[in-house]
Design a protein that fits this description.
Shape: elongated
Distance between the termini: 60 Å
Structural class: mainly alpha
Largest sheet: none
Order of helices and strands: HHHHH
Number of helices: 5
Radius of gyration: 18 Å
Strand content: under 5%
Number of strands: 0
């Protein structure tokens, strides 16, 4: 029984460390993407302000973030619109943007570390 608890504790610690590493990676990725779009990197770390800046850089006006408060559309559809347009304003193809909707974390890492250039809001 003690061996089982030791294995269980070790597994929990390993999963926690992997989760922490992925979280730190995604924070770095978001900071790099914000920098690439011409926003201060620290804007990615501040809740609500990061959404305002993202809407400003992607759709042209930060106040459009309030669309996210509309039930159904704002919760399920508009976030996908923002993600899709984020890839487009960074010069990626429509095919990459669709892949980005399906595999957002992986495509975010690709965007952060490639040589894509911010084209301005669409």
């Amino acid at each position: 029984m003690e061996a089982f608890l030791g294995i269980l504790a070790g597994t929990a610690i390993a999963i926690s460390l992997i989760g922490a590493a992925i979280s730190i990676l995604m924070i770095v990725v978001q900071c790099k993407i914000f920098s690439k779009m011409g926003a201060p990197w620290w804007a990615a770390l501040i809740p609500f302000f990061n959404t305002w800046v993202l809407c400003e850089k992607v759709v042209g006006h930060g106040a459009k973030m309030f669309i996210l408060l509309i039930p159904i559309f704002g919760w399920f559809i508009y976030p996908f619109v923002l993600i899709f347009k984020q890839y487009k304003v960074l010069g990626k193809s429509t095919a990459f943007a669709i892949l980005g909707l399906l595999f957002t974390p992986i495509c975010q890492v690709i965007i952060a570390f490639d040589n894509s250039v911010y084209l301005g809001p669409c």
